[in-house]
Amino acid sequence: MPIEVNGKTFETDEEGYLANINDWEPGVAEVMSKEDDLELTDEHWDIINFLREYYEEYQIAPAVRVLTKAVGKKMGKDKGNSKYLYGLFPYGPAKQACRYAGLPKPTGCV
Amino acid sequence: MAKADFEVPELQQYPEIPAVEPGVMAHSSPFKSKPQFQADLGFPGELVDDWQKKALDKMGDLLSRYRSLRVYLDSCVKCGSCTDKCHYYLGTHDPKNMPVGRQDLMRKVYRRHFTLAGRLFPKLVGAEDLTEEVLGDWYSYYHQCSQCRRCSVFCPYGIDTAEISMAAREIMDHIGVGQKYCNEIIGKVYKIGNNLGLPGPALADTLEGLEEDVFDDTGVEVKYPLDQEGAEILLVTPSADFFAEPHVDGLIGYGKVFHEAGVSWTLSSHASEAANFGMFIGSYENMRRVALRIREAAIKLGVKRIVFGECGHAWRVAYSFLNTLAGPWDFLDQRYPIPQHICEFTYGLIQEGKLNLDKSRNDDMVLTYHDSCNVARASRMGDRPGGQFDIPRAIIRATCNHFYDMDEETIRDRTFCCGGGGGLLTDDLMEVRVKGAQPRVEALNNVIQEKGVTHMAAICAICKSQFTKVLPYYGMDLDQIVSVHQLVSNALVLTGEETEDEDEAADEAA
């Protein structure tokens, strides 16, 4: 189902992930999060931005441990765990944060 | 946390056999594979024109290749033993999720076209044509089977519904009706080397991070080597071990065990996946292609042994089929099992007294153990029958002070599937996953109530991911599922490790 962002149309797949990662703009995350009744704070944006940077370098979303470690380094050790991430993104970092960041969904036994 | 748009089953103290509710799960079916994913596997991109004929041709081909399939389709006497044994029936109440109901979806077509009585008097023998409606039922209900084989344990003829499900999926793939989750993933293994699509550099970065973490925790330089030629052991593990929790805690444990054993080992970026989804879709050709990557990596790296990490169906493929799929393995060291399970490896060291294990480090947990279906019912470990049940438990007992088994009707060869196996571990099947988990979660809940169990250990990546997702639907925490080698990792005192007591002593001395 395509989504509308600032008058532009973005293609998504069956599960709501952006069809083309290069199309992404911050408004995509805003619109997607509104549909989930979630308000994006700076903490959310830190995660989304990290995901995009990591993807640009490695062509894959970061492993959960890589992500929690990066968060821990930047924002303090008490936040470097998956509980903190689930607090921000209740549907999970992969399902929700990757989707907002325009990344494809991680596949496999995860 | 988890929001359901379906009714989550209530957990009972004693299992209840539900009354049938015909058709309640007819709406459940996974996303269809896209043409490009089909093409990667050598299947037609979409439903072919003469699909009925092609499907029957394929069924005939499979019947001639697999004698077992014909025996399973012929021998059912409708005794009813299997009816209340499938977790998907118990959780959904749909009679087509009774093993016999699921088998009959194919059996009626088989009878119509491959038996004399069915050709002449179809109505008398319950024979039916392969109509569009029947195909729809196949797609729906053969993707509500996790191929766990529990029903086969109770069938007096040993009919294995898993093989019928696999055959059905293979037939559907050949007429262009594939499942997105499985087929996209197999394509990623061919292109990148693993189910996740984790490229070499990301893998190296992740492993480097683990080395740092273990060093920070213990002060010991434990290595997690990648593509190291000349290493003795090639570790083949599910890519979820690099990516997800609690899987990665298990991987950390494997590395510590290898370190303490003093053997050289390596992972491979070419064979960075133990899982073999070729089995789920019943495709011998794809299963073989995935398995051959392990052979290629073993030869290129010049290893002498192959060890598999914690992955259920990978171990079935490895233990039961690896030799015929990708053998002969005459270039490996014949003094060791080919392949060997990481649990066998660790258990051997424990028996030799080579691991210094401090059980009290796991005292914050009371454990139970979930037998993963493919390990329990389709493989073995060690040199004694039942080793696949006893060895993981022996490891848990050697690393933890508090361990209780769940109800005996739900463990060992009678174990209930986690509800996410067989290619169903995908969000578009969340309803059947949550409902199918009910029998297992019910048994878990009972040991939580009666014995104070806090965590359940498993040796399968699918089980771990499935429970992480479904336990919250039942009011439990996502981190109540742990890896067996996570327990080993916690308890193992590494040679030269800085322990807290020593730190304190050093602080005091200063």
TrEMBL record, chain A:
Active-site residues, Swiss-Prot/TrEMBL: 109
Gene3D superfamilies in alphabetical order: 3.30.1420.10, DsrC-like protein, C-terminal domain
Keyword terms of this UniProt record: Cytoplasm, Transferase
A biological-process GO annotation: tRNA wobble position uridine thiolation
Top-level taxonomic group: Bacteria
Pfam families: DsrC
Family: Belongs to the dsrC/tusE family.
Function according to Swiss-Prot or TrEMBL: Part of a sulfur-relay system.
NCBIfam families associated with the record: dsrC_tusE_dsvC
Stated name of the protein: Sulfurtransferase
TrEMBL record, chain B:
SUPFAM superfamilies: alpha-helical ferredoxin (SSF46548)
Record keywords: 4Fe-4S, Electron transport, Iron, Iron-sulfur, Metal-binding, Transport
Occurrences of domain 4Fe-4S ferredoxin-type (ranges): 67-96
Record-linked InterPro entries: 4Fe4S_Fe-S-bd (IPR017896), 4Fe4S_Fe_S_CS (IPR017900), Helical_ferredxn (IPR009051)
Listed Pfam families: Fer4_8
Highest taxon, organism lineage: Bacteria
GO molecular function: 4 iron, 4 sulfur cluster binding; metal ion binding
Coiled coil location: none
NCBIfam families per UniProt: DsrK (NF045796)
UniProt xrefs under PANTHER family: FUMARATE REDUCTASE IRON-SULFUR SUBUNIT, HETERODISULFIDE REDUCTASE
Protein name: Reductase
Organism of derivation: Halochromatium glycolicum
